[in-house]
Write a structure and sequence with these properties.
about 30% strand; Rossmann fold; Thrombin, subunit H
Length: about 325
């Protein structure tokens, strides 16, 4: 009887172990996302008056959001440097920051499941003055020619909206809002004095400790934390992205090693098995002369062994002889 119980427990232990995903599997299950710089056109005039020059608070908000999403671990987040490189290559304009179609295009180039865009709708001061010398006290003090005592409290309010965009369809998958508010007495929203002195080289670093300790910095972090938590809650419900690979053989070695002109930006991953085909002829519409179908014949398959952003390397197998210009695509 004891041996049977032991066997059952051993079986359950093995089954539990097999059901727990490895770190690599868990990472692969995460949705890959990128965060665009937030649009701040609505608050730009106030930002300029606040800091004495136009500071890109939309980039600052995005940088903080990336850190929080990475820390939370619900998504696999593309590095900002990689995103910035693509934005420069695509001549992306600041006016396109909140445009879903433009963002989806950038997301497809990056090979991510979704791309996060957003807008800053409120950013700055909401000061209130309170007269604490009213009522009987004010009346009593008035007899001696003394007015009420006025107490000033500085309040910073930041409100942002973030939308998660499907890179295949430009559909809005999720929309969340975040609002942060912080108040203190006896100081301004950027500290004492009339201006903020924590900008190195005249550039605002919203991730710096100095900014984070200001009233405005605390409000910013509260708003971004709200958005990050809202996006985290949407992670499990996001649809899986269907990756369509459409590339060419760029190099073919005699030992069967192929180099492809598509890589991780196109969604290629190590272990993928892709069809290798060769164009035989084009079929033209007799009325217009336009090509209406490409006829291809199978050459074999390639199993991917290495991937970088723009290319992939794989091992060929099959009856044919691959050559430069052959097409590679998902199995059908």
């Amino acid at each position: 009887m004891m041996s049977r119980v032991t066997a059952v427990l051993a079986f359950l232990l093995v089954l539990t172990f097999l059901m727990v995903p490895t770190r690599a599997e868990a990472q692969q299950q995460k949705k890959r996302v990128a965060v665009m710089n937030f649009d701040y056109a609505t608050v730009q005039t106030y930002v300029t008056s606040l800091f004495g020059s136009n500071q890109d608070v939309g980039k600052g908000i995005a940088d903080i959001l990336v850190d929080k999403l990475v820390s939370d671990g619900a998504y696999s987040v593309i590095e900002r440097k990689e995103l910035d490189k693509i934005l420069n290559e695509q001549n992306f304009s600041n006016s396109d920051r909140a445009d879903a179609g433009s963002a989806a295009k950038i997301g497809r180039v990056l090979g991510v499941d979704a791309i996060i865009i957003g807008s800053i709708t409120q950013f700055g001061r909401d000061d209130k003055k309170t007269d604490i010398g009213g009522g009987a006290v004010s009346g009593a003090l008035g007899k001696f020619g003394i007015g009420g005592v006025e107490k000033k409290q500085s309040t910073a309010v930041v409100q942002i909206t973030a939308r998660m965009i499907d890179t295949s369809t430009a559909e809005i998958l999720a929309s969340v809002q975040g609002k942060g508010e912080e108040s203190r007495g006896g100081t301004g929203i950027l500290g004492s004095g009339g201006s903020y002195g924590g900008m190195a080289g005249g550039v605002l670093d919203m991730q710096s400790k100095n900014f984070g300790q200001t009233i405005l910095g605390v409000a910013v972090n509260k708003a971004v934390t709200d958005v990050a938590h809202g996006l985290d809650q949407k992670a499990a419900s996001l649809p899986a992205r269907v990756v369509t690979i459409d590339g060419l053989v760029a190099d073919a070695s005699p030992d069967g090693t192929l180099v492809l002109n598509v890589g991780s930006r196109a969604g290629v991953k190590v272990g993928d098995r892709l069809d290798v085909k060769r164009g035989v002829r084009d079929i033209h519409d007799p009325a217009t002369g336009k090509v209406i179908r490409h006829v291809e014949e199978p050459v074999g398959t390639v199993t991917i062994t290495e991937v970088d952003a723009q290319s992939a390397v794989g091992k060929f197998s099959g009856p044919g002889q691959p050559k430069v210009g052959d097409t590679v695509s998902n199995p059908k």
